[in-house]
Amino acid sequence: MEIDINDAAGRIHTIPILFDEAAASIGQLRIVSIKLDAPCAELKHFSSNVDFERIEAELKRVAYSIAMIDAYQPFWDNFDEIDRQAFVVDGLGRSSCKRKIALGDNCFLHIEVADPLYPTELPSIRISGPEANTRPLEFKVVTNRKLW
């Protein structure tokens, strides 16, 4: 079963809910796993062996996950802009707090947002590639950090 939720920006978030088929065949409703495409680790995936008596608690947890979608709007807005404007080679997906961006000359910019609830705080930044090409870029990052 999947639940589709539209966020404030019109992005569609699909929440797959997997039920235990063996339990269903004997008349029990048991949730095996629920996944959310959110950058928060505790919301990405949770599994349980929930019988019908506990289904209400699990559905409340799903409702909480859906409510968290609104909290991540600024994060997704910022990362959508990066994805549109840059050549992102790794880290795509709504649950990823990382991006690897191709800069040219075999150089890559690696960014990671520490807390997706505060996406405009200075991210972790690393540049990889040939040292002759990365040294000037690293110097620019270090000298311009204060402008963030």
Can you summarize the main beta sheet?
Answer: 4 strands, antiparallel
- Estimated helix fraction: 25-40%
Rg (CA only): 20 Å
Tell me the name of the CATH homologous superfamily of the largest domain.
RWD domain-like
Biggest β-sheet: strands ordered side by side in the sheet: 1-2-3-4
- Given this structure, which CATH class of the largest domain is correct? Alpha Beta
Q: Could you tell me the mean pLDDT?
A: 82
Number of helices, where a helix is a run of at least 4 consecutive DSSP H or I residues: 5
In whole angstroms, how far apart are the ends? 43 Å
Count of beta strands = 8
What overall form do the CA principal axes indicate?
Answer: elongated
Q: What features would you highlight for this structure?
A:
148 residues; alpha+beta; Ubiquitin Conjugating Enzyme; 2 domains; four-stranded antiparallel β-sheet; 5 helices; elongated; FANCL_d3_sf; FANCL UBC-like domain-containing protein; Fancl; FANCL_d3; ubiquitin protein ligase activity
Could you walk me through the main structural features you see in this protein, from its secondary elements to its overall organization?
- The termini are far apart.
- Helix content is 36%, strand content 30%.
- Strand 5 and strand 6 form a beta hairpin.
- It is built from 5 helices and 8 strands.
- It is elongated.
- With 148 residues, the chain is of the alpha+beta class.
- The chain folds into 2 domains: 70 residues, no CATH class; 74 residues, Ubiquitin Conjugating Enzyme (Roll), CATH 3.10.110.20.
- The strands form 2 sheets. The chain has a 4-stranded antiparallel sheet.
